[in-house]
Write a structure and sequence with these properties.
CATH class of the largest domain: Alpha Beta
Radius of gyration: 22 Å
Largest sheet: 4 strands, mixed
Helix content: 25-40%
Number of helices: 12
Oligomer: single chain
CATH topology of the largest domain: UDP-n-acetylglucosamine1-carboxyvinyl-transferase, Chain
Strand content: 15-25%
Number of strands: 23
Distance between the termini: 21 Å
Length: 445
């Protein structure tokens, strides 16, 4: 169950180096992908270690409205889905996805596979601003009639199934657009060749989608380079997903980034249980950023640990392209005020269209903290300066809240007095409902 927090929440600094092991929730990316894939199995599938958060709750609720039998046991962290080989039981449904981008894109593509019916999808005001056009255009070209708000939600789909053949997809705004179409492509009536522009096929979250497809019986996709930044991904139709009856969900690597960064703020060692370098998630590569900042990263049978001696704090600045691991850029940006040199983060332009305009949000709050900040179309640069105590606005964005939660653990006054407060800490419920409770448990361990 989600922890109730005061609003605003004063973050209590650590007065000694951290030493402990933490369990983070299951991967949001894998949980919501597996919920869709489980529907395409020909038998029941149980997901263990699943994420229970706003995003996954929305996905489960929507699948139930589509007529699927879904049984969730939050205490056991398991979800059982009765697979139907992808046949959607309901002929009509109204689906609300909140601000969950994965649910929005994956469900939209899934609904388009139905041979008839009418499905309306909508979300929060922020979700109504998030890119859907590339996917909606592709589905329309496959025969689905769509009425939308100028290619944004709300959208009503009247599908006739995916016809197959060639389809164009502009996916530079979000890799989820491509992942959504890839996962349901085996349900098409003929093989589907997806002409992709925008470089989405190179990104880790698409590779995660493909790896899950291959792992569960789908043939490896042929890739043809068309030049001019375009590729053709060829997906076989008619191959049923071969999914085991039980699938374990990995710990969320994006959520792990906060706790693996904590030793850079307070010293000590944190181990994230169950997280390993063979993770399917590209965000595990954030550990390389931590190494560059001076942290020691070690992997054991228990998980991955991050360590730093107090005498080595703070580390130098850094410069990197976060295009492959953009969910973690906020983690680095939030602790940048503690680093000796400037931090420049590139490749993050698409994050302006996520739960919030993440570049603008981080820039605004860092400036309030007394930092020199330059925010460009695709980058953020922070020059560390004397920290000014502040109240952080979170813009209904879980990653803004959790990132600055880590910075607030720094013992600015030297006596453990809080100096940073977080507005709307409950927005963490999107992916990590008990984040601040977990942070406090580590502090008092």
């Amino acid at each position: 169950m989600a922890e109730a927090y005061s609003d605003p929440l004063a973050v209590k600094p650590y007065t000694r180096p951290v030493l402990g092991t933490v369990e983070v929730p299951g991967s949001k990316s894998i949980t919501n992908r597996m919920l869709i894939l489980a529907c395409m199995a020909d038998h029941p599938v149980t997901l263990t270690g699943a994420l229970f958060s706003d995003d996954s709750h929305h996905m489960v609720d929507c699948l139930k409205k589509l007529g699927f039998e879904v049984h969730a046991d939050e205490e056991a962290r398991s979800i059982r889905v009765e697979g139907t080989t992808g046949v959607i039981p309901a002929e009509q449904a109204s689906l609300f996805v909140g601000v969950a981008g994965t649910a929005a894109r994956f469900l939209t593509a899934f609904c388009a596979t139905s041979n008839g019916g009418e499905f309306t999808l909508d979300g929060t005001e922020q979700m109504r601003k998030r890119p859907m056009k590339g996917l909606l255009d592709a589905l329309e070209s496959q025969g689905t009639q769509i009425v939308s708000n100028n290619s944004f939600f709300p959208a009503t789909l009247s599908p006739i199934g995916l016809q197959g053949g060639n389809v164009q997809l502009e996916a530079s705004a979000s890799t989820q657009l491509l992942s959504a179409l890839l996962m349901v492509a085996p349900l098409a009536k003929e093989d589907l060749s997806i002409e992709v522009s925008g470089g989405a096929e190179k990104k880790p979250f698409v590779r995660l989608t493909q790896e899950l497809m291959y792992r569960f019986g789908q043939p490896k996709q042929e890739v043809e380079d068309l030049g001019a930044g375009r590729v053709l991904l060829k997906v076989k139709a008619g191959v049923t997903y071969s999914i085991p009856r039980t699938v374990a969900i990995e710990p969320d690597a994006s959520a792990a980034s906060y706790f693996l960064s904590l030793p850079l703020v307070v010293g000590g060692t944190v181990t994230v249980k169950g997280l390993h370098s063979n993770s399917l998630q590209g965000d595990y590569a954030y550990t390389e950023v931590l190494k560059d900042l001076g942290a020691t990263i070690e992997e054991t049978a228990e998980g991955t640990s991050s360590s730093m001696s107090v005498k080595d704090l703070p580390g130098s600045g850094t410069h990197g392209d976060f295009w492959p691991i953009s969910d973690t850029f906020l983690t680095l940006a939030a602790i940048a005020p503690l680093l000796k040199g400037p931090t420049r983060i590139d490749g993050i332009g698409h994050t302006r269209h996520q739960e919030s305009d993440r570049i603008a949000a981080m820039a605004s709050e860092l400036i309030k903290l007394g930092q020199w900040v330059e925010d460009g179309k695709d980058h953020l640069e922070i020059q560390p300066s004397l920290i000014v105590p502040s109240e952080v606005l979170t813009y209904e964005d879980h990653r803004v809240a959790m990132s600055f939660g880590i910075l607030g653990c720094f013992n600015l006054y030297g006596d453990g007095s809080p100096w940073l407060t977080i507005r709307d800490p409950g927005c963490c419920a999107k992916t990590f409902p008990d984040f601040f409770h977990t942070l406090e448990q580590l502090r008092t361990a």
